Amino acid sequence: MEIVLIGSGSVATHLGLALQSKGIIIKQVFSRNPANAESLATKLGTTFVDEITDLYTNADIYIYALKDSALKSVLRKMNVLNGIHVHTAGSIPMSDFESFTSRFGVFYPLQSFSIKKEVDFSEVPICIEASSPEIEQVLFNLAKLLTDKIYLINSEQRKKLHLAAVFACNFTNYMYDIASQILDDSDINFEVIQPLIAETAEKIKTLSPYEAQTGPAVRFDETTIARHLHMLNKSPEISKIYSLLSRDIHNRHKNN
Fold first, then answer.
1. Which pLDDT score, from 0 to 100, does residue 215 have?
2. Low pLDDT (below 70) residues in the chain
3. Which of 54, 97, 198, 225 has a CA positioned 20 to 30 A from the CA of residue 238?
4. E strand map for the chain
5. 64 and 86 in contact (C-beta within 8 Å)?
6. Is 116 found in the same domain as 182?
7. Residues 200, 142 share a domain
């Protein structure tokens, strides 16, 4: 099977390397940034182009790993009608391909990807959607090379899944960043809090997030909350976040 990667960021990089390790041929890389395209192509030992009209035209699958806002502009310039065309985005409907091709789908790895951090794809859920049962099977077989965690998720479900992922991952990571700033301010190493973070993540494997919630906001410990807010008086934006989250947590748990 031959695949063309359209995009050269973290998703394209990790997915390309993972698929190549399973014997899939990454035939070409496209990026509008030639340096990025060349960098990923070098890692994969393949060719690259920085003009969409120069794409290899006989690949089996074209994987679009792009910013959400870029997909339609790339499709408008696309002149490749062969193969299966799939995107990797959480919030873009599959129907965006309809005016371009009849053979399309979604191949959405539900994971946070960073260039400098390796990913074990055997632990990554892959959500697929397809324009036909035949293409669904092709995408399922491709996903099966990487993981057993494969889910048939339609576009409406995927939008909700992506929203949930933003709360569970992106916003949570920002909470880590705030915690890191508070610790740095007192010359405390962030590693001190890492076991607490790990235990919190481990706990929700056996408890629901609702059951696992602890802290002063659950019991509305006004003395502790007031003390924390006083400590944040030089950081008004973080203070607002603390107050909003504390109030919402308390309202969620106040009847227990």
1. 94
2. 256
3. 198
4. 2-6, 25-30, 47-49, 61-64, 84-87, 104-109, 126-130, 150-152
5. yes
6. no
7. no
30 and 142: one domain? yes
Asked whether 148 and 122 are in contact (CB, 8 A), the reply is: yes
Q: Alpha carbon 81 to chain centroid distance?
A: 28
Q: Which amino acid is at 202?
A: E
**Predicted pLDDT at 185:** 93
How high is the pLDDT of residue 178? Answer: 97
Write b or e for each residue in 91-113: b if 16 or more Cβ atoms lie within 10 A of its Cβ, otherwise e: ebbbebbeebbebbbbbbbbbeb
130 in the same domain as 14 = yes
Say if residue 190 is in the same domain as residue 224.
yes
- Containing structural domain, residue 187: 158-253
Q: What is the pLDDT at residue 208?
A: 95
pTM exceeds cut of 0.85: yes
Shared-domain flag, residues 14 and 135 = yes
Does 117 lie in the same domain as 38?
A: yes
